[in-house]
Amino acid sequence: MYSVDNRNMWINNHHIHYPCTRYNIKRKKLKKVIKDMVFENAAICDEISRNQEKLLIVREECKFLAKKLKIFEPQLDISTYTTTVKKTTPRKKATTNGVATPKPKRPAAKHKKNIIEVQEPITSGNVTIYNFGEIVYDTPFYYSDCAIYPAGFYATRTYAHFRNIFSKCTYHCKVIKAGSSPRFEIMDHDKHFKVTGLSTDECHSHLISLINKLLGAEDLIPANRNGDRFFGLTLPPVRMKLQEAPESKFCTGYIPLEFQLNYHESELKAESDPAVSFEGLHNTLNRFRSRH
Questions:
Q1: Mean pLDDT over residues 37-47, rounded?
Q2: How high is the mean pLDDT of the chain?
Q3: Closest CA to 127 of 188, 173, 160, 187
Q4: For the ranges 17-21, 153-157, 209-213, 242-246, which has the lowest average pLDDT?
Q5: For 129, phi and psi rounded to 5 degrees?
Q6: At what angle do helices 236-243 and 261-270 cross, to 10 degrees?
Q7: What is the secondary structure of 52-91 as a DSSP string?
Q8: 232 φ/ψ angles, rounded to the nearest 5 degrees
Q9: Residue 82's pLDDT band (boundaries 50, 70, 90)?
Q10: How far apart are CA 142 and CA 248, in angstroms?
């Protein structure tokens, strides 16, 4: 075995006689340092991107909470409050013929919800609205770009019976609050047919599939994503009524309806679609029979 001094002397002589070995060692060290720096840089970039996403989420939550606070926070002026102590004096009880009469109690104050009440049912075509419900803007599942889905919305529509297309049936359409996302329901007047889904299109498509089975064709009457229209949520009177509520301003994804005559005419034409109109359904069937 060599001593430490002899071994160091051998290494120095080896580097002198073989200079490439010394540079190869330095190159390997630099390569390792560069590799470590690349991995470290990638890790730092990933961490920065995660923090930026968290920051954006926090900013959006702060904006939402600030808007919500403006609605529910009472406008109080703290400077007007003063701490004063009043002396309490016992009050004499009201008596009638020497007998104390009980003090009438005040009725308990009821919590008012943001519910758009309907004094009388509103009828538009084949749709009758009984309750506009309560606008929920805390989650984007309660509205879309062209419709608002208020919890408690209740309307009826007259359409072909799911067992006999030649007779009319009244379908009850409801929007039920179920946590962060609503549930939609279509039920006939006799409660023989009931379907519940996560969207209006899902419920409406199920009803149209039963109509097509009666006609003997699976795609004779296409649904065409008319669920919102079948519920009456896209009707101009309904949209205008919901837009009047202050809570609708916080439905960020919803595009308000402007009063335009052309739009109302196009909506009336859409109401004659065979998937939502009893008369439109039979007009389509008559044209189909005349061709064949």
A1: 88
A2: 79
A3: 173
A4: 17-21
A5: -100, 125
A6: 130
A7: HHHHHHHHHHHHHHHHHHHHHS----GGG---------PP
A8: 85, 10
A9: very low
A10: 11
Q: Smallest Cα–Cα separation from 150: which of 192, 200, 107, 97?
A: 200
- State the average pLDDT over residues 154-175: 94
Assigned token pair, 283? 């007009």
Phi, psi of 173 (to 5 degrees): -110, 125
Measured on CA atoms in the order 191, 196, 200, 202, is the torsion positive or negative?
A: negative
> Rounded distance, CA 114 to CA 18, Å?
87
| Residue 90: both structure tokens together | 């016992």
- The pTM for the full model equals 0.58
Instruction: Quote the CA–CA distance of 78 and 178 in Å, as a whole number.
Output: 39
What's the Cα-to-Cα distance from 134 to each of 140, 164, 175, 215, rounded to whole Å?
Answer: 15, 35, 10, 38
- Structural tokens at position 229: 């229209």
